Amino acid sequence: MKKQSYLVQFSRRGVMAMAAAAALMVAGGLPAHAAEVSEVSKVRVAQQFGISYLPLMVIQEQRLIERFAREAGLPEPKVTWNQFSGGATMNDALISGSLDFASAGVAPMLTLWAKTRDSLEVKAVAALAALPSFLNTSNPDVKSIKDLTEKDRIALPAVKVSIQAIMLQMAAEQAFGAGQQNKLDALTVSMPHPDATAALLSGRSEVTAHFTTPPFQYQQLENPAIRRVLSSYDVLGGPHTLNVIYATGKFATQNPKTTRAFLTALETADDWIKQNPKAAAELYIRAENSKLKPALVERMITDPDVHFTTVPENVMKFAEFQYRIGQIKVKPADWKEIFLPDTHGYPGS
Q1: Is the peptide bond between 215 and the residue preceding it cis, with omega within 30 degrees of 0?
Q2: pLDDT digits (tens, 9 = 90+) for 297-324
Q3: Are 152 and 189 in contact (CB under 8 A)?
């Protein structure tokens, strides 16, 4: 985060008094910088399930936040990690102050950004990854979303608020016309991606469709009874950021070096994944205790449609849609209004 600069004028007497105080601190065995406000000694990070959170898994295993905090001149922080199944509960944790860095879909972050503009000022630290979400189905009669009926149930992380829920509304508007974005909402059920995958593949559940992310969508498609109905890249008209890291403005302002250390850790993790896809696949399997074959995970990581990058892509399309349907009450002027200043040099959209 860019440091704010302040012009403070002191009288000659005030400067002398400060110098005397510093001298007393040194004489008493305390370093002069002890008077400075320190940054947090504990950093609390949350993530969810799926390949899009791989950079966070790399950061955790390689202790990159700790490394870059030390390099910034900070004492090594204690970093704790928690896993959530959806953006709504993660937002609650961030608001309550029990979390420092949240990670969720663009849509939940935008909802919180709009709600906290005059209070906590939640903003994105960086994008996590740009990758497609698939709507998969086990119903042989469903060739497009127009074929879904009241007999179908669509699993997604959180009804109406998760990024998959918003993308389904965008797809419904495109398929059924203006004002019809909620047409399929009654068919949706909230379910974590791992549970929804198990339900869809079992063939014995009410769940007949799942709007999901890698690796779950590819795992499902290994079963010949499962087919893809649509890709979010089709809905958005191209690649888009799926998930982001975000924090409150208060935290970022009070902890600029820690926030910058997190961003540097993300950039480093992205580079490592690109250079070491096989090792990254093995790391993912360890971190998630996954039974997927390493070769399959590596193919997902190296898929041309998957971009591990901190640069935001097409986030304004989500903002414009959410504003138009009334889910957020204010529309950002551009993507930079949603993100902290350290990313403003990126070629984002």
Answers
A1: yes
A2: 999 999 999 999 999 999 999 999 999 9
A3: no
Residue type for 81, please?
A: W
Q: Mutual orientation of helices 277-288 and 256-275 as an angle, nearest 10°?
A: 120
At residue 310, φ and ψ (nearest 5 deg) are: -85, -5
| Domains in the chain: boundaries | 42-130+240-343, 134-236
Tokens read off for 8: 């403070």
User: Side-chain half-sphere of 268: how many Cα atoms within 13 Å?
Assistant: 18
Helix (H, G, I), strand (E, B) or coil at 253: helix
**CATH 3.40.190.10 for the 42-130+240-343 domain, yes or no:** yes
* Ranges of residues in the chain whose predicted pLDDT is under 50: 1-36
CATH topology of domain 134-236: D-Maltodextrin-Binding Protein; domain 2 (3.40.190)
Q: 42-130+240-343 with 134-236: one CATH topology?
A: yes
Distance CA 110, CA 97 (A): 18
